[in-house]
Specification:
Blueprint: H1 3-11, H2 20-28, E1 33-36, H3 43-53, E2 57-61, H4 65-77, E3 82-85, H5 91-103, E4 108-111, H6 119-124, E5 130-135, H7 155-161, E6 167-171, H8 176-185, E7 193-196, E8 204-210, H9 214-224, E9 228-232, H10 236-248, E10 253-256, H11 262-273, E11 279-282, E12 295-300, H12 307-314, E13 324-330, H13 332-339, H14 341-345, H15 349-362, E14 374-376, H16 379-386, H17 390-402, E15 406-409, E16 417-420, H18 424-433, H19 438-447, E17 456-457, H20 460-467, H21 471-483, E18 487-490, E19 497-500, H22 514-536, H23 542-549, H24 562-570, H25 574-588, E20 593-594, H26 595-601, H27 607-619, E21 624-625, E22 630-632
Helix pairs in contact: 2-3, 15-17, 20-21, 25-27
Length: 633
């Protein structure tokens, strides 16, 4: 089928969005391609459609577990077979998934970057017939980007094993230097092509407010702008507090953050998507992979760390092309704190070493050991046990992640999975020997198709209802079957996971790349300065400021942001100028007039317009103004 036929059959659309068809054509021609499409620009279509047009498997590298799961489920719902491998899965689960990718009828395999160089992955890679390599969130490959992830650097070595496979790198936000770095790090060929969608959003009005009471301003915005809304906050506690405030004021709202269980998050998200909840108050854990076109307003209750995050989150408003609003609220104190964040976000190297040693001791990992191991990790328990500052610990762990020493999965709310680990004859023999477990096995086989082939998601509560048992008893029986080796049972994980990417370093050979660390600190400070300047700029079109930051300047002002509207208000038409200047000449012709009196006489005229006319007349020497502000001819 042609790309358009594929689009129509599987997605139901008659036509592509701007640039999508060009990107797909470049991919089908076998060219390495960089695609910069803003939030809501339809990045996934750009690789899913050409992958369906080619023979073989499309390998998608993505850092976001939740996004991988969403896309796999989305593809399955369209009748397209897809798989995912990510941190937290058991060896047996990973092996079965890779076997299916290599020998089954699957079109997409999503993998987290950490999996790319494991022996197990490399063992099955030659049998997979990879037709396209996709790098999602490609800005993560650049050390100069806002979300650098060292495992992304492994993609280059993967290309050596896939010499004739084109690469499509996609991202919503990347400055010129980051774009160059992406192409270099991913070893793009000279025939590479780059596509960048315009940063113009003619229906999206950007505004910035420095107000005494953000709560009151938020209520005012939501009362003036009807329809679905998102309110972004920096802290989890804040999300609940603000949602409660909105509910008290008869505005339907809920809160969302990474600390909620998988079930809670799914329920809250679904209620918002179907408009049962009007306003979602959330941290930046919300929004990835959600395609809701009718969001009328996105409010940032706290200032984000950088324009990359702000543009991506604000861009979730107005995807349907109708008028929408992106509002940023801030205080002077916040700007001062952000300007100092570089010192906090990048702890002293000595402090990082102390925290690394304490963490290894906390996890009980011996020197020279630990690579590949994962541990449940509660940061609160850790800082309390070692009497450490939680902020310093948070950013020290981030530094260790960027040095490729460990990884922290903060949102690994992974549902339970079961895979039958024996063949059918062995299973029948086991049931005879253990009749008390036969009902559970029969229930699993009846409820979950494919359970012999790959790990399936199971819900213990539903299974218990089906078997007329208590959920706790079902979990115990599943664990027994696991202990017998009959199934691989992985209970739901609701805790963050620390995974060691290398063995614990001995004290005398501990080291991190200081030059790279200090360069990342410098780039963070430059990004912080950029968003501070954005908030304080009261003259330039906000769409133009954002476009210029991403090296994609636009020629016209948007006309609908706060700065453009203010500027329009100050513009004086010829008719207005003639009327105002005639009145000034008349009032000042004898003894002159002070500005306050002039304003009283012309109280129907906007103050800004009056000042504009006075400045012009003075510059043309048509009027004079003395030190007391008296205007004379």
């Amino acid at each position: 089928m042609t790309p358009r036929e594929i689009l129509k059959q599987y997605w139901g659309y008659d036509a592509f969005r701007p640039l999508q068809e060009d990107i797909i054509a470049a991919v089908l021609e076998g060219k390495d391609t960089l695609a910069l499409l803003p939030t809501g620009g339809g990045k996934s279509i750009c690789f899913q459609v050409p992958a369906m047009a080619k023979e073989g498997v499309c390998l998608v590298v993505s850092p976001l577990i939740a996004l991988m799961k969403d896309q796999v489920e989305n593809l399955k719902s369209r009748g397209i077979n897809a798989l995912a491998v990510y941190s937290g899965m058991s060896f047996l689960e990973v092996k079965k998934t890779l076997q299916n990718a290599a020998y089954g009828n699957y079109k997409f395999l999503y993998v987290s970057p950490e999996r790319l160089e494991t022996n197990l992955f490399l063992e099955y890679l030659p049998a997979m017939n990879i037709s396209l390599l996709v790098v999602d969130e490609a800005h993560c490959v650049s050390q100069w980007g806002y979300d650098f992830r060292p495992p992304y650097l492994r993609i280059a070595s993967l290309r050596e094993l896939l010499p004739h496979v084109p690469v499509l790198a996609v991202t919503a936000t990347a400055t010129k230097i980051v774009q160059e770095d992406i192409c270099n790090k991913l070893l793009f060929a000279q025939t590479q092509q780059r596509f960048q969608q315009s940063f113009e959003r003619p229906n999206l009005s950007y505004s910035v407010f420095n107000v005494a009471s953000r709560q009151n301003k938020l209520l005012e915005i939501l009362k003036n702008v009807p329809g679905s809304a998102i309110v972004y906050c920096k802290s989890r506690k804040h999300t609940k507090d603000i949602a409660d405030l909105l509910c008290m004021n008869n505005i339907s709202a809920d809160y969302y953050h990474a600390g909620l269980s998988n079930t809670e998050r799914s329920t809250k998200q679904q209620n918002w998507v179907i408009n049962k909840t009007r306003v979602m108050v959330c941290t930046n854990a919300f929004g990835m992979g959600i395609d809701k076109p009718g969001v009328r307003v996105v409010v940032h209750f706290d200032i984000p760390d950088c324009l990359e995050n702000y543009y991506q989150e604000a861009g979730r408003a107005g995807r349907d092309g109708k008028r929408a609003y992106a509002v940023l609220l801030y205080s002077n104190r916040e700007l001062e704190e952000l300007a100092q964040q570089g010192k906090i976000r990048f702890p002293e190297p000595a402090a990082i070493k102390i925290i690394y040693t304490a963490l290894m001791n906390h996890l009980q990992v011996a020197a020279g050991y630990g690579e590949g191991l994962s541990f449940d990790f509660d940061i609160g328990t850790f800082v309390s046990a070692f009497k450490l500052n939680i902020l310093t610990v948070t950013y020290a762990i981030k530094a260790l992640e960027q040095e490729d020493i460990l990884s922290l999965s903060e949102t690994i709310f992974k549902p339970s999975t079961v895979l039958v680990a024996v063949n059918k004859s062995d299973l029948a023999e086991f049931e005879i020997l253990h009749p008390e477990l036969e009902p559970l096995l029969k229930g699993l086989l009846r409820s979950y198709g494919g359970i012999f082939d790959y790990p399936v998601t199971v819900y213990e509560n539903q299974l218990a209802k089906f078997l007329k048992k208590e959920p706790g008893d079902v979990k115990k029986e599943l664990q027994r079957l696991h202990d017998y080796g009959i199934i691989a049972y992985a209970p739901q994980k609701d805790k963050p996971q620390v995974t060691l990417l290398q063995n614990r370093m001995y004290a005398d050979n501990y080291s991190i790349n200081m030059a790279g660390y200090m360069e990342r600190k410098k780039n963070f400070e430059l990004r912080a300065a950029a968003i501070i300047n954005y908030t304080q700029n009261i003259a330039d079109c906000r769409s133009s400021i954002l476009a210029a930051y991403f090296d994609a300047p636009i020629n016209t002002s948007c006309g609908i942001c706060d700065n453009c509207i203010t500027r329009k208000g100050k513009t004086v038409s010829k008719e207005e100028f003639d009327t105002i200047s005639k009145a000034i000449f008349e009032l000042a012709k004898d003894e002159g007039i002070v500005f306050e009196k002039l304003q009283q006489h012309l109280k129907t005229v906007q103050k800004d317009k009056l000042w504009n006319v006075l400045h012009f007349l003075q510059s043309e020497n048509k009027i004079k103004a003395d030190k007391d502000g008296r205007i004379t001819l």
